Fold these 2 entries.
Entry 1:
Amino acid sequence: MNSCELTGRLTTPPRPFVTTNGQRGVNLAVLDERTDARGTTWQTWFQCTAWDDGKSQAYQIAAGLKPGETVKAIGPVTARAFTGQDGAVKSEIRLRLFSLSRIADDLDGAGEAPF
């Protein structure tokens, strides 16, 4: 199994959902943004899902987050290519959250403030 550790900003409110078989989850969008030495900004968007599986607190933590907060997310990553409505080939990167924590903004990313 692969594992990815991502630090980025939450871009949308968490979106809770329930599957047809009753499994609860929450979807999040996390932006990893960085600037290179030339001043070019690169953005990578990650679609993250936390499941209420009773094993981790990622589901409860995700539900309490707000857009703009910095988070550290850990879990296996998958990617897929698809054709968008505009006909262009696009890609999607997904992360199934095993661990999620909020990074305290007043620490400027230097520390974590787990829930």
Note: Helices lie at 58-63.
Entry 2:
Amino acid sequence: MDENSKSNELKSTGYELFILLLSLVSIFNLGIDVLGSYLGIIEPIREVIVIINRLLTNVLGTKFLAQVLSLGVGGLTACVVCYLACMLLGVTEARDYLKRLFTRRLTGSHLDN
């Protein structure tokens, strides 16, 4: 493993720890909010908790959405590359399988089984 990939891996680890910290703060705030509704916490404190949770939800939601879109694009790209490789190599079985898979998913015929 070269130095550049180790550096990127460490940056990713720091970011993931930051997201973990935000998640824990959000869970802690949720616990305080639920507990506070039973104990009668002062209203300004609950308003601060709601504001912090909205900000954290925006950060975490954006991160989640970006990952989901990245996975979708990556998966679709892999299928297209596989299909094109099968066409170029003349592997008809794999090409036919991908055609059946996509036809089945698009028409909803897999729900009939």
Note: DSSP finds three helices and no strands in the chain.
